[in-house]
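Here is one chain, start to finish.
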Amino acid sequence: MTGQRVFAPLCGKSLDLLWLRDQGLEVIGVEISELAVRSFFEENGLEPEVVSVNDHDQWRAENITILHANYFDLQPGDLGTIDAVYDRASLIALPPDMRAEYAEKMRELVSIDVPVLLITLDYPCHQMSGPPFPVSRDEVEELYGDHYRIESLTSIDLLSDEPHWREKGLEELTETIYLLGR
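Its structure:
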């Protein structure tokens, strides 16, 4: 995948952007918070070039571009060619009433032939009020099943490795990694 472009929606200041870049990928993210965009570059010692394009600013440095924009306002031309999507914490950051719109917007922005790596968390919703919000396999099927083949790559019990979740009141917490493709 070296040289390919990966889209990271609602990226915040995730260190995953650096990891993806270090794998030889060109990374393009979108983030509504200018503070998060600025902090990402500052905290990682990157000197961005900031360019205004359409209704948003593009912050670029060392094969990472973050669009300071509202994801829901993006147009397909804003991203250019995308070879993969990395949804590490976007879907789970959104309350349930926004997820269908999020999934529909993704289909508008990115070709249906582009693979999506989707990482979700699932837990009993009465045990914690997100974010992150729980997203079940059934919901993934409901949001993406009509357009993608959904493959569950792995599921991990996070409570054993990350006890801070127990402190938030969770008795169950499963991270599932899905590959959405054609």
